Amino acid sequence: MSPHLVYRVRPAAPQAHLFHVEIEIPGSGADLVELSLPAWIPGSYMIRDFARNILKLVAESTDAMPLKCRKRDKQTWVCRTGGSAIRVRYQVYAWDLSVRGAHLDTTHAYFNGAALLMRVHGMDGRPCSVDLIPPDGDVDAEWAVATSLAPEQIDGRGFGSYRAENYDDLIDHPVEMGCFEQVGFDLAGVPHRLAITGRQYADKPRLESDLLRICGEHAALFGELPIDRYLFLVTAVGEGYGGLEHRFSTSLLCSRNDLPHPTDAKRTDAYVRFLGLCSHEYFHLWHVKRIRPSALMDGRLDRELHTRTLWAFEGITSYYDELALVRSGCIDPRAYLGLLAATMTRLVRTPGRRVQTLAESSFDAWTKFYKQDENAPNAIVSYYVKGALVALALDLTIRAGTQCRTALDDVMRALWSRYGCTGVGVPERGIEAIASEVSGLDLDAFFATALDGTTELDLEPLLSTVGVGMRLRPSDGPKDQGGCPESFDHREARPTLDLRLRPGASEAIVQNVIRDGPGERAGIAPGDVVVAVDGLRATAENLESLVARAVAPVRVHLFRRDELIEVLAVPAPARPDTCDLMLLDAVPPQVLEARTRWLASVAGDRRDCAP
């Protein structure tokens, strides 16, 4: 046996959704070998217990003699080896069509190493090879492989042997096997590929052109591209959305309607959202995968690792993912302000922002953000959403305080130089320290309020420094997320019960009841099905309008469990929880210059994209 670890992966039973995995483990002289599967995957902070999908684990010596194995805990097996080399075989059930797990059927095979490839304790640092083997029979006739793993000896379809530096590297390259379309482009001499799985009719040239510009903005910001290859693994489905970052690739799940169609006259909102997702995960190439929080660097994947810095790693990334769209010219400034306004609206519509601090949101991501229940809007705040707005506030604060000589861009470059290039982890308050050092400003009060307090972010005066007007107004309805109007016209506050309904349902099923709202005061609860308002049939589509037109108090009939209940509710005027932003025309030259510099391409050679 080789002195390094050898993994073999075969989608052996697509109809049963079973991968077969074999590991060749060299002898170490120890009588026992421990193996385990991670409980979570880097980048997604929730215990997922991937080992629950392992079936039929057996071990044998190199001469095929069975060896005794016992399960020590939920994810760890111990095998008696006598100090010799062994083989371990097991099956993994794969039916998780997400960017985090593994999925196998007769159309494709997809896996993350964390969900499939067991860690051999004490050998984490050894080089690994992984053999990707096609399925038996006719299923594989057209199948190929897409992965960012470094090839060692592969055939024309990509099946064969790949190498990894160690276990961490091994599980950081998702793998797709199946029939997919490929497109690509080169950026600074580095090949970038997109492998798109699923039925779709995407405008491939537009995808290539737009992603080249966006990726170029991020590379210009950091000043270098620390990779020799990059892969976007895209799975297009009917409904879905998500992404997960890796050092040389990203996995993306999207609706096929998110992709650009050749007949689209301009970029649709859905396509802009997809570009934002690509931008977000590509930014992580630097910020998360190489600039890393020290708290997450010990390699432990068997339990939670807590940090208060997720606001910076996900929030700053969320700020830059949309900023890169306007800087690259893929959207115009008004469209960007519309996206920014929607982010502000999401925050203002979260009463939990007054309950949970941003640092607490980061720390409790494992048990609160990733395990949201019906009370989540009242109890927590998203470190993505509020983190992005804190990044915006930090950027504008630095720009205003230094007369635009310094910006958050400079902070990111300093983080890259000090931490990303050296492999040293960012300490818990490292982002704040670098921001103060680079800007020369005293930012203690800013961070105390933004990270450790629950008072409102005062964004309006900061936005005015770049010639952007802001207002909060009542919502026009559940689909109104705010935007960037030509002018701030008056909006009447319609009466409402402050209920949020379950998305996608035709019935008016209550998902959330907003704290201290009229619905809560009336005793309406999550899970209730509202069937009538003042004797008129209620649906998800018309509930808001029925309430708005009724005369208080309103008789609301609803089912709770299987019991019909009548409650009296007194609707209240809708809160000013919807944000509009507007480009101001009559601004001083220095303000116009500040806005131009804020939204300008970092790459320096931007040409506005076609619509």
Topology:
Blueprint lengths: L4 E9 L4 E8 L6 E5 L17 E8 L4 E2 L1 E5 L2 E5 L5 E8 L8 E3 L3 E4 L7 E2 L7 E5 L11 E4 L2 E5 L5 E5 L2 H4 L4 E4 L1 E8 L2 E8 L6 H19 L7 E8 L3 E5 L3 E7 L13 H15 L26 H18 L5 H16 L9 H6 L12 H4 L5 H17 L6 H13 L9 H10 L4 H9 L7 H5 L3 E6 L21 E2 L2 E3 L6 E6 L4 H5 L6 E5 L2 E2 L5 H7 L4 E7 L2 E7 L2 E2 L4 E6 L5 H11 L12
Parallel strand pairs: 1-12, 18-19, 19-21
Antiparallel strand pairs: 1-2, 2-8, 3-7, 3-11, 4-5, 4-8, 6-7, 9-10, 10-16, 12-15, 13-16, 14-15, 17-18, 20-21, 22-31, 23-30, 24-25, 25-26, 26-27, 26-28, 28-29
Helix pairs in contact: 2-3, 3-4, 4-5, 4-8, 5-8, 9-10
Pfam families: PDZ_6, Peptidase_M61, Peptidase_M61_N
Protein name: Peptidase M61 domain protein
Organism: Thiocapsa marina 5811
Description:
By secondary structure, the protein is α+β, with helices and mostly antiparallel strands. The protein is 26% helix and 27% strand. It starts with a strand and ends in a 12-residue tail after the last helix. Residues 606-611 have low confidence and may be disordered. This is Peptidase M61 domain protein. It holds the Pfam family Peptidase_M61_N. Residues 491-562 form the PDZ domain.
Which runs of at least 5 residues are low in confidence (pLDDT < 50)?
606-611
Q: Characterize the largest beta sheet: strand count, sense, and whether it forms a barrel.
A: 8 strands, mixed
Any idea what the CATH superfamily of the largest domain is called? Neutral Protease Domain 2
Q: What best-fitting shape do the alpha-carbon axes yield?
A: globular
Separate helix tally: 15
Number of β-strand runs: 31
CA radius of gyration = 26 Å
CATH architecture label of the largest domain: Orthogonal Bundle
| Domain module tally | 4
- Give the neighbour order of strands across the main sheet: 5-4-8-2-1-12-15-14
Secondary structure: helix percent:
25-40%
Instruction: Give the distance, in angstroms, between the N- and C-terminal Cα atoms.
Output: 58 Å
CATH topology of the largest domain: Neutral Protease, domain 2
What is the structural class? alpha+beta
**At the first level of CATH, what is the class of the largest domain?**
Mainly Alpha
Please tell me the overall pLDDT: 96
Strand fraction: 25-35%
